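sry for the spam today, last one i promise. struct tokens for design, 400 residues
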């Protein structure tokens, strides 16, 4: 009999973390490697947020807190939802966890039974299908390809819904494509959901603040108030406030679901770090102007990366609305052979050859459920990006 559980056998380790680790190892071994796999801003946490954490330590805020969040943080989150999304929640409708990942996981664990289906548009954030599997549910993957700018169409959503559908996971702007849904595009999906009252929406708004040009962010419960009672609106401070290591995420939804998520958390991790929670209070209540400053840098990088990748033979790279990723198609490279002799049969072969021959680490599309493509994170310096894209151009130009 296996020592490890059958549950564990259903999931795989995160492929994005695997790429980052591989790139780090090659670098440590002295190879000239540029990593474009990171899922976190390269900016530092703002000083006022760090100061708030230090002050919390000095005040002795170092004890257990309420399991699913300090009252002060819940109040700051309620204010944020009102201010940014025109959504009214009470503190009893808010759950704070150790990162956005934990709140999403809690919600799935608290609601899924064997046979329950969860609709996940592909390409997807790598953790959604595995979290669904860990919770005993069945992921239903629906492709949203480059032809529809990586956005799920209402027809595809409607066709995927069955009597067993419990959740629809919605992520805009998206990891890995950066695609952001306009208000009309969100409305087209919520119109479908209004016809299926048994389906709940898990909206992962983690990249809400990272949007460019004149894109306006919208979230389902805001666009369609009729879905308020069956929507869990998820967000966090990790990406917008460059706080990935602090581990604070939060979700808002019906009180009975929030209570169940808290019960689960009370028997696993208890409260997120008290110090990180006080830092998050400052992040949400304090000055927000550095977000625009960071976004100006991200936009400049996005534009450069898109231009340079589109100049590489065989690559087509759409311009995304947000996040810090682009998701170029490599359909034009498939079937060719690299200068080092690797046959590019799929996107994993492409990424492996690119890393080995040119020292550029990207995550291949199959990891996100949509091939042939790869994900570039542009959360790294302009110089790194220029050099990496030059190497990708060289790599593609020498495919035969
Ligand atoms: C779409 C999406 N949701 C949630 C998360 C999780 O964020 P956190 O670091 O707060 O757990 C990530 C992190 O990569 C993400 O890309």
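last one done:
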């Amino acid at each position: 009999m296996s020592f490890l559980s059958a549950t564990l056998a259903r999931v795989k380790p995160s492929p994005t973390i695997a790429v980052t680790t591989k790139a780090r190892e090659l670098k440590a071994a002295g190879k000239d490697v540029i990593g474009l796999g990171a899922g976190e801003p390269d900016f530092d946490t703002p000083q006022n947020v760090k100061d708030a954490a230090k002050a919390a330590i000095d005040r002795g805020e170092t004890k257990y807190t309420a399991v699913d969040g300090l009252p002060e943080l819940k109040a700051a989150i309620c204010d944020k939802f009102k201010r940014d999304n025109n959504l009214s929640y009470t503190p009893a409708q808010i759950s704070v966890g150790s990162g956005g990942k934990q709140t999403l996981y809690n919600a799935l664990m608290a609601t899924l039974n064997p046979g329950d289906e969860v609709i996940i548009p592909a390409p997807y954030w790598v953790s959604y299908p595995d979290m669904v599997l860990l919770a005993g549910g069945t992921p239903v993957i629906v492709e949203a390809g480059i032809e529809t700018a990586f956005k799920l169409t209402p027809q595809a959503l409607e066709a995927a819904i069955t009597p067993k559908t419990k959740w629809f996971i919605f992520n805009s702007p998206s990891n890995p494509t950066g695609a952001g849904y306009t208000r009309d595009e969100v409305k087209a999906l919520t119109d479908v959901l209004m016809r299926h009252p048994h389906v709940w929406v898990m909206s992962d708004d983690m990249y809400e603040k990272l949007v460019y040009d004149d894109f306006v962010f919208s979230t389902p419960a805001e666009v369609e108030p009729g879905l308020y009672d069956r929507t869990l609106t998820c967000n966090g401070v990790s990406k917008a406030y460059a706080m990935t290591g602090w581990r604070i995420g939060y979700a808002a939804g019906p009180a009975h679901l929030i209570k169940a998520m808290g019960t689960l958390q009370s028997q696993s991790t208890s409260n997120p770090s008290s110090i990180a929670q006080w830092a998050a209070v400052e992040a949400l209540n304090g000055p927000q102007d550095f977000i625009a400053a960071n976004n100006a840098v991200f936009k400049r990088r996005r534009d450069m990366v898109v231009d340079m990748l589109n100049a590489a033979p065989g690559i087509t790279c759409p311009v995304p609305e947000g996040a810090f990723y682009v998701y170029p198609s490599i359909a034009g490279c498939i079937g060719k052979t690299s200068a080092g002799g690797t046959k590019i049969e799929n996107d994993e072969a492409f990424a492996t050859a690119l890393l080995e021959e040119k020292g550029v680490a990207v995550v291949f599309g199959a990891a996100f459920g949509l091939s042939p493509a790869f994900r570039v994170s542009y959360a790294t310096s302009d110089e790194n990006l220029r050099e990496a894209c030059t190497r990708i151009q060289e790599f593609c130009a020498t495919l035969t």
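The longest helix spans residues 289-310. ok im logging off now
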